[in-house]
Amino acid sequence: MSPRTPSRRTGARSPRAARPSAADVAADAAASAPTPAVAVTPEPVAEASLTLAQQEARTSEITFADLGLSAAMLASLATAGYSRPTPIQAQAVPLALKGRDLMGLAQTGTGKTAAFTIPIIERLMGGATRTRALILTPTRELCQQVEESIRKYSGGTGLDVISVYGGVGYEAQTTALKNGVDIIVATPGRLIDHLEKQHVVFDDLEVLVLDEADRMLDMGFAPQINRIVAQIHPYRQTLLFSATMPPEVEALARKYLRKPQVVQVGRRSQAAATVRHCVYPVPKHKKMDLLVHLLREAGADDSVLVFTRTKHGADRVVRHLEDAGYAADALHADKTQVQREQALARFKAGETKLLVATDIAQRGLDISGITHVINFDVPQQAEDYVHRIGRTGRAAKEGDAFTFMCADEIGMVRTIERVIGQEIARISVPGFDFGT
Ligand code: AMP
C-alpha cells in the first residue's frame, strides 16, 4: 500500500551455565543498578534511557546459549526460528532464572511473553505435577497467546498448561484443573470462580506473573487480583509486566514484589521503532472512501488491521468494505467468543486480509505479519496509539501505521506526537484532504 514515503518429563534440566556470559553482563548491569527498596521507578536500569534500536545494538552479541538455558529449551527456540534473544529477553531471562522478582516495562512486540515463559518452563521442567506457576492476563485472547507461547517452548518437557477465561463453559476447565496442571494462564474473573468452588489450590505455587498489569487495572481487576494473590504464599517469585507505569501499577508492584529488578526496554511511551507513521488529514465523511482508496493500492499479501473507536463504527466499516468488494471481519466485544476466535484465526492464517477492531484487539495480541495498522479514528489516549501501533512492526519486522485525522482530532494527534516524542508526517491525498 502506498504511499510509504515516510518423568513423564524427558527434558532433563541442564546445569545453569557457570561461565560469565554476555547475558550475565547485561543482567548484572541491571542487577547492580541501584534497586529501590521496594521498587518502583523505571529509572534505575541503565538501559532505560536507550531507545529500542540502541538496546538491540547493545544486546545483539548475546545468544540464547549465553542466557544459561537448557539444551531442550535451546532446541525449542531454534525450532521457533529465533536466532537471538530480544533486548527484554536478554535482560529479564537471566534475572528471572536467578529467582529474582522482576518488573518488566516493555512495549508490545518486544518479545516480552517469552521473557517470562522461558524462565518459568526452565524452572518447572522435571518437577512433579503440581500447580506451580500462575500467569494472570487481562483478556482471553492474551491468555490463549501466552498458553501458545508456553506450548511452543515446552515441547517434549511434559509440562501441562491450561488457560482459564470467561465466555466459555466451565466443565473442561474444571476437569483440567482438578486433574492437576503445572501452569495456569488465567483472566482474574474466571479464576476467582474456580477458586471459590475449590477447583484449584495454590499451596504449591512458586511463580506468579502479572502480565499487562496496567491493562488489568484499567479493566477494574484490582479487587480480583488482590483476592487471588491473597491465596498465594509470600515466598514466591513475582514477575510483573506492564507497558506503562502509572501510579496504580507502581502501587501494585510495591504491594506484591520483593526487591524487584526493573527491566525496561525502549523509552517509556515510545512507539515501536520499526514502524513508519503517517497521518492523513481527511474530512470525517471521507474516511471510508480514503480507506478504500488506500486498500486499492495495497499489495495482495498486505494484511491490514483497522481500528475504530466504537463497535458500531467497526461494523459500519466492515459493511462499507464489503460493499466495496473487500472481505473483512469485525472484532469487538459484542461478538461471541467463537466469532472472535474465528475472526482472529482467519486473520492469523491470512484467509482474511482485513480485520476491523475496537480497542479489544489493541494490546497483547500477537498476530504476526501485519503490514498496516490503520487508525480509522484517532485513539482517545496517547498510550493507546502506542499499543495499537504495536500490532505492526513486531519483533523487528517493518510495518506502516496510518492515522486518519479529521478536524476535531487534530489536538489529539498533537498530544500523541508529544508523548511518542516524534512528529508524524502528514500525507495529503488529493480529493481527500482538508483543502477539498
Ligand atoms: P510479544 O512481545 O511477546 O508479544 O512477542 C512478539 C513476537 O515476537 C511474537 O510473535 C514472538 O513469537 C516473537 N518473538 C519473541 N521472541 C523472539 C526472538 N527472540 N526472535 C524473534 N522473534 C521473537
What do you see in this structure?
With 436 residues, this protein is of the alpha/beta class. It has two domains: 47-265, 3-Layer(aba) Sandwich (Rossmann fold), CATH 3.40.50.300; 275-426, P-loop containing nucleotide triphosphate hydrolases (Rossmann fold, 3-Layer(aba) Sandwich). The chain is built from 16 helices and 14 strands. Helix 4 packs parallel to helix 5, helix 5 packs across helix 6 (140-153) and helix 15 (382-389) packs across helix 16 (410-420). Mean pLDDT is 81; it is low at 2-49 and 267-271. Adenosine monophosphate (AMP) binds at residues 82, 85-86, 89, 108-114, 366, 368, 394-395. Residues 82, 85-86, 89, 108-114, 366, 368, 394-395 line the site of adenosine monophosphate.
In CATH's first tier, which class of the largest domain applies? Alpha Beta
Based on DSSP secondary structure assignment, what is the total number of beta strands? 14
**Mean pLDDT score:** 81
List bound small molecules: adenosine monophosphate
Q: Summarize the main sheet.
A: 7 strands, parallel
Q: Provide the CATH topology of the largest domain.
A: Rossmann fold
Q: How many domains in all?
A: 2
At CATH level 2, the architecture of the largest domain is 3-Layer(aba) Sandwich
Number of helices: 16
Query: Stretches where pLDDT falls below 50 for ≥5 residues?
Result: 2-49, 267-271
Topology:
Elements: H1 22-32, H2 52-59, H3 71-80, H4 87-97, E1 102-106, H5 112-124, E2 133-136, H6 140-153, E3 161-164, H7 171-179, E4 183-186, H8 188-196, E5 207-210, H9 213-218, H10 222-229, E6 237-242, H11 247-256, E7 261-265, E8 275-281, H12 287-296, E9 304-307, H13 311-323, E10 329-331, H14 337-348, E11 354-357, E12 372-375, H15 382-389, E13 399-405, H16 410-420, E14 425-426
Parallel strand pairs: 1-6, 1-7, 2-4, 2-5, 3-4, 5-6, 8-13, 8-14, 9-11, 9-12, 10-11, 12-13
Residues 82, 85-86, 89, 108-114, 366, 368, 394-395 line the site of adenosine monophosphate (AMP).
